[in-house]
Amino acid sequence: MQTVATIFPARFTGPTVAELGEKAVIREIVAQAPSEFNGDDAAVLFNAPPNSRTVVTTDMAVEGRHFRLEWSTPEEIGGKAIIQNFADVEAMGARPVAAVLAVAAPTNTPVSFLRALAHGIGERVVEFSADLVGGDIVAGEQLTVSVTAIGSLGGSLPPLTLDAARPGQQLVAAGRIGHSAAGLALLEHYGREVPEGLEVLRDAHTSPRIDPTRGMIARSTGATAATDNSDGLIVDLTTLAAASGVTIDLDRDAIAPDADMIRAGELTGTDPWEWVLAGGEDHTILATTAGPAPSGFRVIGRVAKGSGVTVGGERPAHSGGWVSF
Amino acid sequence: MQTVATIFPARFTGPTVAELGEKAVIREIVAQAPSEFNGDDAAVLFNAPPNSRTVVTTDMAVEGRHFRLEWSTPEEIGGKAIIQNFADVEAMGARPVAAVLAVAAPTNTPVSFLRALAHGIGERVVEFSADLVGGDIVAGEQLTVSVTAIGSLGGSLPPLTLDAARPGQQLVAAGRIGHSAAGLALLEHYGREVPEGLEVLRDAHTSPRIDPTRGMIARSTGATAATDNSDGLIVDLTTLAAASGVTIDLDRDAIAPDADMIRAGELTGTDPWEWVLAGGEDHTILATTAGPAPSGFRVIGRVAKGSGVTVGGERPAHSGGWVSF
């Protein structure tokens, strides 16, 4: 096995994980995201009320593939791993309650780097009143971060599933669409020092946020189907439309690139519609509902009989998305 | 980023993950361990009965560090990832109900290899009446397998925790101790073709098994504390003894190496007591109880006032264990 050299930013000084050892490293991580549930063979989470169901999802991120140390701080890497998973929980209409973290780290990883990563996780889980309840840290050639999120689905309403969109419903969205992809394009073009005023796009990529409880609110106010914009708007909605046996028509004006995206498009020589339609990684909650847009959501399209996804009744100009391999 | 070349065994022919693409690879994996819970943003697991608590734990395994492709089949790698996690759930006195799988795979990974890995997972989860309910597959330089297990802790009894051993209790064990480390020594010495009759030791390392429900049975018959033999018998029991504020004295005869281990020790020039005391990875459930040994358990020691772990009243000859970094 060859050694892949990972270059950690110079500001992460102090002992490496190999110098400090596993137990001390775990203590450092737990201190950044403390939880009374932590510290045994497994974490015992909660006494579930009647009708409560447990929800689980997992995501893995690999250095050089899903994040780069020259573009993202460890706080951002940790925070994004949480948001990716919690968005999947919210997209079921459930409440994220816990996360576990597995990290493969090169032996030369500074402990201060992992502490910062755990700090970023702690900041995000607290926003959701959730806990980091356990984990595993192992040696690996390539920095790899795997988070599994546990959610609680209360009440008697069904979860928000991909197969439950119905003709006549509106498609609603809570959050930005295309900002993450615009930010990635700026990072590729400029590195972390993007043109003034466009940091919001960079940060949308390196540090996405979602508004906690939007999934629960959508579910409690009549939404039936939901997903999040993770692989690309058209790709993700095509999956939902196919599972539900419907067509979705997006409102061109409602998803049009904003002024920041238009400027970023000019600077990088990209059609900003590509970011909107094929971008992904915004983790914006997309739901279908027969009622008005729930609090925090706006209408961006309509569900009808048929199949596939259109924009203003036409085939989308960009329909690609994230490709894992 | 340099490319780390992973050599897959020649029998795994057919398309690679890069050739087949993510969606088709996921279908192949799901077919090997099918579950009705799979296929949405997150998996909705179950309606928890009153008093039920959810338990969660995670483990990560990296090629070259935790397993080697020349020693372990993909079926064994997948199965071992399940057992490592389910043993942690059992060690809480809970029932494993679900697992999620995250895999980082080099782009040249044959799909047939991942299918075999998923098949090994499917074989193990079925033994526990559990399901593989979701996952993530991403590209990475180094094959990395991360499993998170979800368990259900029913009834009103507390979980089996590290801090609940009490003086006067017996220490009981369900399963072999030291076999996995003996098998690892044989693999290092001979490769996969170990001397005839000692395959049982090799398989204990590459394909550990635990007897489902032993944790629940221990908890329902009066055990209060438990852990599993994962990092090393002395290391794991020292953690339990320290958390509980007690000492544990092991019965030398009850844990003595068996004939297979003595033979493997002679062949490899190793004191088999090292495997017993420092070996780990057997995932044998170790519990403390004031009552008689529960069904499937045998008595291997006693809990008393004091601190630390002894063997027949003396300091153990070997007290090391697994070192992550």
Secondary-structure blueprint:
Two copies of one chain form a homodimer.
Chain A: H1 17-20, H2 22-32, E1 43-47, E2 53-62, H3 74-90, E3 95-105, H4 111-127, E4 131-139, E5 144-153, E6 170-174, H5 179-190, H6 199-206, H7 214-220, E7 223-228, H8 233-244, E8 246-250, H9 252-255, H10 259-268, H11 272-278, E9 285-289, E10 298-305, E11 308-311
Parallel strand pairs in A: 3-4, 8-11
Antiparallel strand pairs in A: 2-5, 3-5, 6-9, 6-10, 7-9, 8-10
Describe this protein's structure.
Chains A, B: GO terms for molecular function: ATP binding; magnesium ion binding; thiamine-phosphate kinase activity. 2 copies of one chain form a homodimer. Helices cover 34% and strands 24% of the residues of chain A. By secondary structure, chain A is of the alpha+beta class. Chain A folds into 2 domains: 17-153, 60s Ribosomal Protein L30, Chain: A (2-Layer Sandwich), CATH 3.30.1330; 170-311, PurM-like C-terminal domain (Phosphoribosyl-aminoimidazole Synthetase, Chain A, domain 2, Alpha-Beta Complex), CATH 3.90.650. In chain A, the strands form 2 sheets. A 6-stranded mixed β-sheet of chain A has the order 7-9-6-10-8-11, sandwiched between helices. In chain A, strand 3 (95-105), helix 4 (111-127) and strand 4 form a beta-alpha-beta unit. In chain A, helix 5 packs across helix 6 (199-206) and helix 5 (179-190) packs parallel to helix 10. The mean pLDDT of chain A is 93. At the A-B interface, helix 1, strand 1, strand 2, helix 3 and strand 3 of A face helix 1, strand 1, strand 2, helix 3 and strand 3 of B. Strand 2 (53-62) of chain A pairs antiparallel with strand 1 (43-47) of chain B, so a sheet runs across the interface.
